[in-house]
Amino acid sequence: MVRRLNGASKTDISKLTGLSPQAAVRIVESLEESGRLVRAGKRTGGMGQPSIIYKINGASGCTVGVEIGRDRLICVLLDFDGAILSRWSQPHAFPRPQDVIRDIDAFMAAQLALLPETQREGFLGIGIAMPWFLGEWRDELGMTDDQARDWAGSAVEKRFRSALEAPVFFENDGNAGALAELLCGAGLDLRNFLYIHLGKFVGGGLVLGGQVHEGRNGNAGALASMPVPGGAGADVLLHRASLYNADVDLADGLTDAACEAWLNDCTEALSFAIIGANSLLDLEAVILGSPLPEELLGALVSRIKAKMEADAPRDFFQPPLLRGRNGEIAPALGAGLLPLFASYAPNLGSLMKSPSSVMMSEEEA
Fold it and tell me: What's the pTM value of the predicted model, to 2 decimals?
């Protein structure tokens, strides 16, 4: 909560969490004594003594975040405040577990060695974000049966936990991207939103009540299999709004006819999916993140807004459509936040009020 507010007093913490003032004081003083929080100034105003503002000490620890994608591996090193200290990306035709483990080990060994000893000692663990069905959709990717079997079943998670000498936290890549936008992105002031990640495949995550809503199987908001209209009847969103089937050079902008056709098809499918999702959930916003160039992503957002305005039912409240702030790095960043999230914020539901609502004077307190 302190990080989300970019600094908070003991009074802020007590009011926002429902903790008693005495409990807030004890917890803050304990975190300050351990070096996790530092004093960052005072807030004046109202009656009484100025409030001491505490911020997170990023140098007191670190985490590693990993996204295992279908066409790339991304590793990030975060400080204790979630700031990116180092980033590494490696494209691949399709990942193999043994190669991923080797690359994670190499990244950790190289990057942790560069940190001060006190920061290394505060290492919390590794977060790994990946599609739950990494070995599926074989026709779309042209993968072999052997490649698919490498990622089948629960043995994958056990293999990574036994091979990596650190606490390991797993999450669906869409949920991890949603967490990144929730804690340090476009969802910072939101409690309810749908996050859409338009990457090699389309995916996403759902935030309800300030919590990433995982669903029974951890796959809520995955979106790839959501039914949408197709040329010959029903289709799924994956086939109409993913980069694997964008047979264009995305860096060329909007001049290419094939790019224009892909944009139109993607716009139609995504607007249909958003209208359906929001009719059910009545969200505060929809956040669209992607490795697309800014010009293309901006054009896509504008087209989706226009399409929804034209197609939405009369009783439809159109949600704001926001661009994600973390781009292609969102799932890896969210993965790196998992150890922090698991250790310090097991329930964010009570901590999701707008930051402006808790900034009060001592007189108000």
Answer: 0.86
